[in-house]
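Priority: low. Protein: Transcriptional regulator. Input follows.
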Amino acid sequence: MKLPSSTTTTDRLTNPTPGEILAEEFLKPMGLSQNALARALGVPPRRINEIVLGKRAVSADTDLRLARYFGLSDGFFLGLQADYDLMEQRRKIGPQLQHIVPRAA
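Result:
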């Protein structure tokens, strides 16, 4: 039985990091620097910089702070992180997933 490919579509899509979304959708439009955001959140500037550069994942702590600051629902940035991580893993192990046959209920 041939299973539908779930990797074909994701291979062609861009997969922005939560940091790219933070920078492009929040910081730039608001004219907010990484340092100003870090000060407002009470976190080291390096944390924000590493998230923006895609070198650090968004933690629950950072998510709660960002959500509070931007008036978003708790878990917003964690959701972005989970979506990013899932797509990256799907790209990495997609061929292996094709060999797993789903178990019937």
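The helical segments are 7-12, 18-30, 34-41, 45-52, 60-70, 76-97. Residues 76-97 form the longest helix (22 residues).
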